[in-house]
Automatic annotation (TrEMBL):
Belongs to the UPF0434 family. It comes from the Bacteria. GO terms for cellular component: cytosol. Signal peptide: none annotated. Gene3D superfamilies: 2.20.25.10. This is UPF0434 protein ROE7235_02557. HAMAP family: UPF0434. Pfam families: Trm112p. The lineage of its organism: Bacteria, Pseudomonadati, Pseudomonadota, Alphaproteobacteria, Rhodobacterales.
Amino acid sequence: MSAPERGFDRHMLEALVCPITKAQLRYDAAAQELVSRPAHLAFPIRNGIPIMLVDEAREID
């Protein structure tokens, strides 16, 4: 059995939306984040699990 791929299941992205704007999220594989451009936030992915808490998100330009 091969090792699991780093990151998270991309199919999950279809079901997730920004908790503030309900907008679609963009997956940033390099930073391991889900980005909401309308909210100017990036939500971290830790151990393959998206952390969709506003308090855990980082502000982006």
